[in-house]
Amino acid sequence: MILHRVRDGLPLMNLVSLRAVPILQQLHLEERLLRSSSDNWCIINDGTNRPNIVMGISGRPSELIDLKSVLRDRVPVIRRFSGGGTVIVDDGTIFVTFICNKDAIPGLQPYPHPLMSWTGQLYKDVLHGFGDFHLQENEIFLYYMYASLTVLDTYFTDYAIGSRKFGGNAQSITKNRWVHHTSFLWDYDIKNMEYLKIPSRAPKYRSARPHVEFLCRMTEYVPSRSTFIERTIASLGNHFSVKPIHQDRVIDPSNTLHSSSKLLTRQELEEAYSSLCEKLHIAAISV
Amino acid sequence: MALKLWASSTANALKISCSGAKTPPLLPFSISRCFSSVLDGLKYTSSHEWVKNEGSVATIGITDHAQGHLGEVVFVELPEAASSVSKGGSFGAVESVKATSDVNSPVAGEVVEVNTKLTETPGLINSSPYEDGWMIKVRPSSPSELDSLMGPKEYTKFCEEEDAHH
């Protein structure tokens, strides 16, 4: 039996505050803590050092990114360990990650939708008073074995203000723990969005809008980055006893144990580009 | 979450324990999230995997309860044939609704076959979790490990209690 640490009646959560740590290093840290720690963690990384494209575990570069421009401009492409879609992150992105034991929050089932509902409520509290924040509904069809027809259900998965998304999230769930991580668009460079294609699997509310009409910047609604970060930590304090931990105690770039998040090699991207050009019967231009 | 129900109170009361019939009865149009099927003849884990003992080989997948809670499976990560699995250890993952979820082996052993159909059609895990959606076949190193797993009645009760507590 594992005894989890408690203080003041609330489970302990270690808080690691980072600034401009490379996103690949952050992902390696998250996965290591998910698989080899029994503590609860919150990692906040205020920006990352340079633009990176980050795909989910099943991401296919040819479907999700503009390979020609990515190769031309040498934009790093990472495949992360969690599910979900593709984002481009840079110093305008604020990352918030929760890594928890499955029984850390009473009554919360460690499945995708309950987790997203809980985190969505937490951020609703964080952003109360700043714009019309809500969780955006996505219609998803489910079906159960032996059913002759499908069940229509709706789930809340995106963070939006009005009909514009400002945060992308994803999760990874193990037998006894889970990770929920979010990249918040504090600000972004429109030019960077051009590296991303509009995904074929997109929520209905997107209505085929290009990135610039689908997204919004938090800086237009929230006074400062530190306001958002401080309010997130305060909101966490309603559920956990938060204990700051210095990054030197956890950051270890040489430790890649449990690290399945990978930087795609240039060769992999070039092969994807060549295959795509063959499929489309167009000449691959050397980049 | 908004759930559209039709005859939900009836559906909620239904808990089918089947003998693995290939042509199951059709059910009402819309089914409560609480409804999931459990098959006789299989063993189950607390992390919602099933295992079918076929003598020298054990077939493994995830249960109807699991696939219903996970949502539409869009990607499946499976091990290589000839790799080893440990009891309770992760051997792969499924992706659904922006989440990867580990799948754990009920028994230790050697992987002898993986379901390659899941690469192109991951949704088989949703539509046929106990049949076409099987994930791996393992040659168990300690067949007695199967004895410690839950039977259908025990697993049904486990799921009811798990859902009731949340």
Automatic annotation (TrEMBL), chain A:
Domain BPL/LPL catalytic, chain residue ranges per copy: 38-244
Stored Gene3D superfamilies: Bira Bifunctional Protein, Domain 2
InterPro entries recorded: aa-tRNA-synth_II/BPL/LPL, BPL_LPL_catalytic, Lipoate-ligase_2_inactive
Regions crossing the membrane: none
CDD domains named in the record: LplA
Keyword Nucleotide-binding: no
Source taxon at top rank: Eukaryota
Keyword Ligase assigned: yes
SUPFAM superfamilies reported in the protein's UniProt record: Class II aaRS and biotin synthetases
Entry keyword set: Ligase
GO molecular function, one term: ligase activity
Name of protein: Lipoate-protein ligase A isoform X1
Species whose genome carries this gene: Phoenix dactylifera
UniProtKB/TrEMBL annotation, chain B:
SUPFAM superfamilies: Single hybrid motif
Leader sequence segment: none
Subcellular location(s) of the protein: Mitochondrion
Keyword terms: Lipoyl, Mitochondrion, Transit peptide
TM annotation in the entry: none
Cofactor: (R)-lipoate
UniProt-listed PROSITE patterns: BIOTINYL_LIPOYL
Cofactor note (record): Binds 1 lipoyl cofactor covalently.
GO CC term, one of those recorded: mitochondrion
Modified-residue entries (N6-lipoyllysine), positions: K98
GO biological process: glycine decarboxylation via glycine cleavage system; protein lipoylation
Domain Lipoyl-binding: 57-139
Superkingdom of the organism of origin: Eukaryota
Subunit structure: The glycine cleavage system is composed of four proteins: P, T, L and H.
Entry function: The H protein shuttles the methylamine group of glycine from the P protein to the T protein.
Listed HAMAP family: GcvH
Protein name: Glycine cleavage system H protein
Annotated organism of origin: Phoenix dactylifera
